[in-house]
Amino acid sequence: MAHLAIPNLGNYTIALASFVDALGVEAWATTATSPKAMKLGIANAPESLCLPFKAHLGHYIEAAEAGVEYSVMVNSVGTCRLRYYRSLAERILKERGYKMRMFGLGYDGIKPPMVRYFDPKFSFALKHALIAFTKIKVIDTIEIAAWKCRAREVIPGQTTQIMNNCLKELNQLKQGKLIKTFHKEVNRRFSCIEIDKCKKPIKVGLIGEVSVLRDKTINHNVEEILGNLGVEVRNYFLLGAEIRNIFKIGFGNKYTRNKMAKIAKPYLNCPVGGHALDSVAHTILCAKSGFDGMVHLCPSGCMPEISIRPILRRISKDLDIPVLQCSYDEHTSPVGIATRLEAYVDVLEARRNKKCTVCLKGE
After folding, report:
1. Which of 28, 59, 95, 245 is the S-S candidate for 37 at Cβ 3.0 to 4.6 Å?
2. pLDDT tens digit sequence for 158-214
3. How far is Cα 298 from Cα 51, in angstroms, rounded to an integer?
4. Cβ 227 vs Cβ 149: under 8 Å
5. 201-361 adopts what CATH topology?
6. What class does CATH assign to 3-119?
7. Percentage of the chain with pLDDT > 90?
8. pLDDT, averaged across the chain
9. How far, in Å, CA of 94 to CA of 116, rounded?
10. Domains 3-119 and 201-361 agree in fold
11. How confident is the model at residue 257 (pLDDT cuts 50, 70, 90)?
12. What are the residues whose beta carbons fall under 8 Å from the beta carbon of 283, sequence distance 6 or more?
């Protein structure tokens, strides 16, 4: 059977692999960039390009060395340089002597080029596409439960262990009925975790560029670090909502692209590409809903995310919500990121304690 290398999108890669099954080929994927892939990408990519491109390129080179014949790279529109990355990655692979056909996912008629090429039967493709959508829902349930439990767990590491076991089991399920049954089981498994019910953890939203948000190798495991510090996180890249926005499906989508644009408009009223609009809108929403802070994750040199940094600082001042800026390149130290997060959490706890003291005094 032919193999198709797909980009890493964190835990959602498990669901993306089912979309590949719909094409009648087998996915070559991991939920996080491997150390080998990162080294290959850094060695073969132009130095000025962002870390996610280097991670994706290294992933494709590693796949090509393993004999994978096909790959797919996400396209983009607007000002984000991602729109050029597929052709650039394809050129680099060709120059290095790798024979791999790379497809793009773009706005090219009803069927993307990749679907036209493999031309699967409609019933077969629909079956596996529905399985993929179901897996996306299960992954969302697993992650939300993990975010809540990790900040309150009594036994350190228990949440991560259950989360990893759930994801591993989900990856092995291939039938829709079994996946739905497993979905009902997820919350019961997390309910077995011993938690401190009296604890009221700090709440922090994660915003920024999707690859950094979702690939724990690139972001140096930010979610788990914050969770182990007693912080309840919320990662604001959700694949289900993203797919609904791409295909203009508003039903069941609380925050469509148009709604997000209206929320962000007082601070950002023109398109800057990427997920910058989402970062601005979610910061405003989190400030209004009582979050203690935001962590903005972006690759060094990312044009959309760097463009909104002054805007995020203005929102931070206007709405009184601290925003920690974290930039990533191949020289970023995991220890440095962990240290910054620890200091940030200390600041948030001090702010909360100060507010509580003021309230008790009646000031």
Report:
1. 59
2. 999 999 999 999 999 999 999 999 999 999 999 999 999 999 999 999 999 999 999
3. 9
4. no
5. Rossmann fold (3.40.50)
6. alpha beta
7. 77
8. 91
9. 23
10. yes
11. confident
12. 205, 207, 294, 312, 315, 316, 319, 321, 323
